[in-house]
Amino acid sequence: MRVTRTTVGTIVMLVAGAGCGSSGATLHDASVVRTCLSEKGFPVEDDLDNPFAPSSRDFRISFAEADVFLSVSDTADAAAAVEQNVTAAAAVLGGSDADIVRRNGNVVYYTSSERFPDGVTTDINSCL
């Protein structure tokens, strides 16, 4: 199953997500995360039409196997809501959230594939 942004965006419009993140969670700075990923050689670009959390702090990293999308929210609670929306959309499309979505503090990242490309989770977490 390949999750398309249009399909996922449509499903998100139908699914209301409410987050309940941790009040003591680490808040990551989008520019620091982006710089770190770029310095590791990842092709990071702005993702201004993120259907889950459109802001100027959303990024896309393109890999041969899939794209990985990062959304940097203002709070961990907002990130939890984004995570819940991605998870709900994946479930509707038959995917498993354990394979496609991750959250660390106020950052949610997810892939358009059935699972993350090898090593990507470790590399992204090293920038958080």
Offer a few descriptive terms.
single chain, 128 residues, alpha+beta, five-stranded antiparallel sheet, 5 strands, 37% helix, globular
Q: How would you describe what is shown here?
A:
By secondary structure, the protein is an alpha+beta fold. The chain has one domain. The chain contains 5 helices and 5 strands. It has helices spanning 5-14, 30-39, 76-92, 97-100, 120-125; strands at 44-46, 58-62, 67-72, 101-104, 107-111. The longest helix has 17 residues, at 76-92. The radius of gyration is 13 Å and the shape is globular. The termini are far apart. Mean pLDDT is 77; it is low at 6-23.
The low-confidence runs, each spanning 5 or more residues with pLDDT under 50, are 6-23
Rounded mean pLDDT is 77
Radius of gyration: 13 Å
Number of discrete domains? 1
Proportion in helices = 25-40%
Total helices: the number is 5
The largest sheet has its strands arranged as: 1-2-3-5-4
Could you spell the SSE succession in H and E letters? HHEEEHHEEH
How would you classify the helix and strand content by structural class?
Answer: alpha+beta
Total strands: the figure is 5
Distance between the termini: 29 Å
Largest sheet: 5 strands, antiparallel
Coarse morphology: globular
